[in-house]
Amino acid sequence: MSDDHLIQMSNVTVGYAAKPVLTGVTWTVQRGQAWYVVGRNGAGKSTLLATALGRLSPTSGVVHRHSHLNAASIPQQCHLITDLPVTLHEFVGLGLIMPSSPLRRQLVDTALATCGLTGLANRQVWQVSGGERRRAMIARALALRPEILVLDEPAAGLDAESERDLLGLLQRLRADGVTVIYVTHDLHLAATQATHVAAIANGRLTVVAPGEVSIERALALPESACPR
Question: Which domain holds residue 192?
Answer without folding.
Answer: 5-225
